[in-house]
Write a sequence for this structure.
């Protein structure tokens, strides 16, 4: 038998830890240790590990056929398209399912905006994480992600995000006049090419620190885009499919973007599926300009259909809001007892808390240490900005119960007692 360590063969680094089983919100390693997964396996297991309805739908579809050209109709894709239109904001009436992940969904939405407007430049936000392809890397709001690559997409422009806790403009919520929207006018005038096609935003930043915009931000951004004839794209790869307690965060913030991209949680228990939802204006991009072999996969569509049927139920979404509010309340209480926790923010089960030094500066090293030590307390935690940030993220599967939310918070308390007590 070949005894070569697989870690030496993998292109990317992995830990020595080997996981052998997942069930619901829990993951188990080969030594039998249990972990409550607060990262939902990279934030995509909306229904947790091995959800029986999702697995059953995929098995049933496998008995029919696993893949089919997208130039003909099929029941799984027809069902997915209908369901996505039903659960999305009313202005979004077109679905492009032939994308195979969040990055390609975002790229497709941008191509549609460029095609519809005849313009090319795209605005994104500081700290944004929009994907891993070269175009989406170019639009990242983090310099460290762009630094190694000399051939980036040139027509991108990053502007300050609505990060009230560390406001770029040094303002306070309620009295700032929403400068984070108003000052985009200056970027258009002095920093752009004058050919802006779209603004692409994550309604709540995924990797950037779980930044929740203040009330009024999105209505004002929507009005700004309308005034300048700019397409507004919501990257809901992480916030969509019930994560905020609404099917899409656009519905939580009561705004209608011109396009929404969705992936991750759409697959329920890990099926690879993504889609672009658009209004009528963005229709018309020829299929040969954006079409991927493993997009519109039938197994993934079967999983997505079951997932949407479960998540769209009012009682399911109400539970997401209830468990999220419970966790936010417990974290707010912990914040009063552990000074290193300087801010707690979130909506539904899209939650983050910020770690800082006594002088208020981001405590990046401590944040990474807490994430590493969490395993000893039965938790899987992820940090912001690929370890460059100071926010710990709480995004368990949406099937979390109130009892499990209590267990999650008890384990967090155990972690904080061990690592943050004086």
């Amino acid at each position: 038998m070949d005894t070569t360590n697989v870690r030496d063969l993998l292109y990317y680094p992995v830990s020595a830890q080997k996981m052998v089983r997942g069930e619901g919100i829990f993951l188990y390693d080969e030594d039998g240790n249990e972990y409550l997964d607060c990262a939902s396996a990279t934030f995509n297991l909306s229904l947790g590990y091995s959800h029986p309805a999702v697995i059953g739908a995929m098995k049933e579809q496998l008995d029919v056929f696993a893949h089919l050209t997208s130039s003909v109709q099929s029941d799984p894709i027809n069902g997915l398209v209908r369901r996505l239109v039903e659960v999305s904001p009313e202005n979004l009436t077109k679905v492009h399912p032939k994308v195979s992940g969040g990055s390609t969904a975002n790229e497709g939405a941008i191509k549609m905006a460029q095609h519809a407007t005849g313009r090319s430049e795209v605005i994104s936000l500081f700290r944004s994480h929009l994907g891993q392809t070269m175009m989406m890397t170019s639009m990242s709001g983090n310099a460290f992600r762009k630094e190694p690559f000399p051939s980036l997409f040139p027509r991108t422009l990053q502007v300050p995000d609505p990060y009230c806790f560390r406001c770029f403009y040094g303002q306070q919520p309620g009295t700032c006049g929403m400068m984070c929207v108003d000052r985009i006018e200056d970027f258009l005038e002095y920093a752009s090419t004058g050919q802006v096609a779209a603004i692409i935003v994550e309604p709540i930043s995924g990797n950037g620190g779980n930044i929740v915009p203040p009330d009024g931000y999105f209505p004002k951004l929507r009005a700004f885009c309308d005034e300048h004839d700019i397409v507004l794209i919501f990257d809901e790869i992480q916030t969509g499919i019930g994560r905020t307690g609404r099917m899409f965060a656009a519905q939580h913030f009561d705004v209608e973007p011109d396009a929404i991209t969705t992936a991750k949680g759409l697959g329920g228990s890990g099926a690879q599926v993504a889609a672009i939802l658009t209004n009528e204006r963005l229709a018309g991009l020829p299929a040969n300009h954006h079409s991927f072999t493993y997009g519109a996969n039938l197994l993934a569509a079967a999983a997505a259909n079951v997932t949407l049927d479960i998540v769209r139920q009012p009682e399911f979404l109400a539970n997401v809001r209830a468990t999220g509010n419970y966790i936010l309340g417990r974290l707010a209480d912990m914040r009063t007892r552990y000074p290193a926790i300087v801010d707690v923010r979130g909506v539904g089960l899209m939650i983050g808390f910020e770690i800082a030094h006594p002088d208020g500066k981001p405590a990046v090293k401590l944040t990474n240490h807490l994430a590493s030590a969490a395993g000893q307390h039965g938790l899987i935690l992820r940090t912001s900005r690929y370890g460059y940030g100071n926010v710990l993220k709480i995004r368990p599967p949406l099937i979390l119960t109130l009892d499990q939310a209590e267990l999650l918070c008890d384990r967090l308390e155990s972690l904080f007692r061990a690592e943050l007590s004086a």
Observations:
- DSSP finds 15 helices and 15 strands in the chain.
